[in-house]
Amino acid sequence: MKYEKELKKAFSISIPVMMGYIVLGFAFGLLLTSFNYPWYLAPIMSIFIYAGALQFVAINFFNAKAGLIDIAIASWFVNIRQSFYGLSLLKRFKNSGNFKPFLIFGLTDETYALLTTIKDDESLSKKHYYLFLGLLNQLYWIIGCTSGALIGSYVKFNTAGLEFSLTALFVVLCIEQYKNLKNIYPFIIGAISSIFALIFVSSDKMLIVSIVSSLILMFFLRKKVEA
């Protein structure tokens, strides 16, 4: 295989995401079928939506029979953080050619964390390495969601608590980020912003407020963050 080295590298660093996505995707599949939705909705949503948090929220949309405008507004708020991720990767994806649309589509929180944590190997074809990383991560998610939905169609499970696997995955990736950066300030800023939003802001606006607060704090502490 021409790009075997890029594929092996992408697979080796995506193993933590695989462990999290398969478990969390399995939970999503179980939850979806527990509301008597057909199992095939899980792979369809995983291929065309591919957004963990939004897919969980979508189940509530379906149950509440929400309108398209309500769904669009809620989806925008849930996924607006991806805009900030994308801006920071403009240079990396600059020479990605025909792969760029998929790289943009597949830029999940976990993929972004890997791209900003693992140092690039200059001997690799970057655009193929990025492509394989994105494809593998989405494949893990599809496998998890589909298997959970299939099993959930025949066996009933108590799904309480399974969604915590996403939080656990973020904790692991956060630790890896700190090991790579050796700079505590971004993590302190993130913690302060999150606690502030948790206490003073309603849950539906917590994410956007915490992101904006983090940006403001990073601007004022720019020198220490860049150090």
Automatic annotation (TrEMBL):
One of its GO terms (biological process) is L-valine transmembrane transport. It is a multi-pass membrane protein. Keywords: Cell membrane, Membrane, Transmembrane, Transmembrane helix, Transport. It is found in: Cell membrane. InterPro entries: Brnchd-chn_aa_trnsp_permease (IPR011606). The chain crosses the membrane at residues 12-33, 39-62, 129-151, 157-175, 184-200, 206-222. Pfam families: AzlC. GO terms for cellular component: plasma membrane. PANTHER family: INNER MEMBRANE PROTEIN YGAZ (PTHR34979:SF1). Belongs to the AzlC family. This is Branched-chain amino acid transporter AzlC. It comes from Malaciobacter mytili LMG 24559.
